[in-house]
Amino acid sequence: MGLAGAARPILETPLTLEILEADLRAALETDATFGPAITIKQVGKGAGFISKMAKVDFDWQGNPEETQRLPKVAVVKIVGETAKANLSDTELQFFSADREAFGIAPDLRIPKFYCGRKFGKDGIEMGYLAEEFSTGQMRHIYEQVEETGVLDVLDEMAKLAAYSRNHPETLDKWTNAGIETLLRGGRTLESINLRLENMKNIYPELAPDCAYCVLCHGDLWTPNILWNTTDGDFRLAVILDWQLANTGSPTEDLVYFLHSALSATEYPEKIKYYLSHYYNKLAAAIKGPMPWEDFDQFVKAYEMSYVLSVSVLVPWYAQEKDELLGDNRDDAALVQAFDGKITFLAKETVRCMEKWF
């Protein structure tokens, strides 16, 4: 090992640099070791991420020809709570699995995976994964995503859904353990009014037949996406955070993305345009019947999913306002944008609720 002395924890978690070094050396098939100049910095704080995230700048020691091929930097995502073990393990499965066998489109724009551990391995109360450090610009829910960026993500979502839809035999490999963990104790208030409780009870009846389930990201809001900005162009770089990957309706990811990507002004003006774009992309890629009879049925399914998802997210957003705004909490314009967005989400939820429930 390249590091001497006492074990050095990463972000005060059970994951140590010694464990990370051993796993990386095995995964990358290298004899190189960590040197003393390795640095660790916490990233992603205030963006609503489930894991603790560290940016690790490596100091590889060894044959220069060997160290040249090794990653210079990585993002390490760590879960140290038993209650969140399924979340970490789900993402590890997504990145480490045989993509064809698990119905994962081979050319998705996702980070390169280096190594990881299932929660509890060797009796250690943590799970983690190390992946490529992706660069790009993030948009918060109170910021607008440009049209080119929205279309890029919709294309990627159609690709993800179509590939698993065309290989339905792969879907039983997904347990949905990550999303079920979040639903048991995640973004909810302690009490929900009777109408929302009734909607929760009928949700299973709204789920599509298993033959029409697809692989979903599960948490595709804008903080989990990075975009490239070059010469004023705004394009998708990479989609992050697959801890809630699950099988379900394609409308699940659509709601999470579009509600967070579009402003209160943009959403009512362009939602049908974006839904039509996605619908046509999916129809062109699927080798068989669509999950809906026609576009109108698709819009209905989307709006019902909107109610079921956003009705829970709105109170969570309000509760976590300061955390989500982070360093921008004193920026009056951004605070106003945040408040306006939440107000619109609530009104749109009521509109869809009155229309379909």
Automatic annotation (TrEMBL):
Domain CHK kinase-like: 128-288
Family matches, as Gene3D superfamilies: 3.90.1200.10
Annotated TM spans: none
Signal peptide feature range: none
Source species, domain of life: Eukaryota
SMART domains for this protein: CHK
One protein family per Pfam: DUF1679
Name recorded for this polypeptide: CHK kinase-like domain-containing protein
Native source organism of the sequence: Mesorhabditis spiculigera
